[in-house]
Inverse folding.
């Protein structure tokens, strides 16, 4: 609908996930008409990001060095590994400041529909990390959905034979949430996982 | 939260309108992890778009040449000018294929709250276009909201003295909409603008 480069900009913005045609148009006009916005900064980052960013050789987290800042940090508890699906889950957990161990990023979850089996995930690399006796506990922190649960079940079977504590993050009512609006599965899990008070 | 360039990418994406921190993170990981996506194409467009795109000297529409493709088209009806707020309104109207005249893009609407008065809009340029007698009708197609109505009222006062037909797009019920869900003002306008049937 637009002439040349304006349409190119709208098309390229529309390729980004979650950016529909209307948003792409709105962003394009913002870029064109906002004097104070400098589009070359985003352009520069887009040009360099793929070359600069690699994935940590140990845990698979994003990093600008061969190993990530968490794996390099000697103060982290080397006996604990928290297994997550994606690098963004690492950031979410780090924000809680509750966990001082190491991570292992699988790069997804088992999903037959999407053609993702155990071999597409970084499970072999996890096994390699467990070959010496440093690690005592594996905390499985995959998502509490069908794919995440399947992955957790697969991992716990794989790890059963080893001398390890294997744990899973608790499921239950979200803090600050409303019992009335909880779905049946979550409410059921909250009952299953109920704890003694006092 | 992320190391270096990944955080830079998230920050820059987050500067775009309508892209919150979560979306910025999701887009950043998509860019990093999707082999088939080439981020250099967006980078190139972002680098060149500001230099290539100018605004039509006549109507203010976006263009890669001094005048836009609509103003250059001799088949368009030179006696009709449709006045809109933004260049994207031109595209919306072109999509209807109902209008074969010319446009005039104001570059916004009168909004005392945002400090936009008539002098910040391309109203003077519109008056210049009306200096010869080619134009017979001005269709005011500003948005049907407070700012758009104020701008329409201002324009119609300005144009009153001239030998011109000045019209305003009809307000009423959206086609395909539900009467029950129409707001009072829209429903009131639909009554005001009612037409004889048959």
């Amino acid at each position: 609908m637009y002439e040349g480069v304006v349409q190119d900009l709208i098309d390229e913005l529309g390729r980004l996930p979650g950016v529909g045609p209307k948003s792409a148009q709105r962003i394009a006009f913002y870029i064109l008409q906002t004097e104070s916005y400098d589009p070359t900064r985003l352009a520069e980052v887009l040009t360099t990001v793929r070359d600069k960013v690699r994935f940590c050789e140990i845990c698979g987290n994003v990093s600008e060095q061969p190993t990530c800042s968490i794996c390099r940090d000697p103060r982290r508890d080397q006996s604990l590994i928290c297994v997550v699906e994606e690098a963004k889950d690492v950031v979410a957990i780090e924000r809680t400041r509750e966990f001082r161990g190491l991570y292992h990023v699988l790069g997804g979850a088992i999903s037959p529909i999407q053609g993702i089996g155990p071999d597409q995930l970084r499970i072999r690399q996890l096994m390699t990390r467990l070959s010496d006796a440093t690690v005592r506990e594996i905390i499985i922190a995959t998502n509490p959905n069908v794919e995440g649960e399947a992955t957790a079940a697969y991992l716990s079977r794989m790890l059963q034979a080893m001398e390890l504590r294997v744990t899973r993050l608790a499921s239950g009512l979200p803090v600050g949430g409303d019992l009335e609006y909880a779905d049946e599965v979550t409410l059921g899990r909250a009952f299953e996982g109920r704890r003694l008070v006092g």
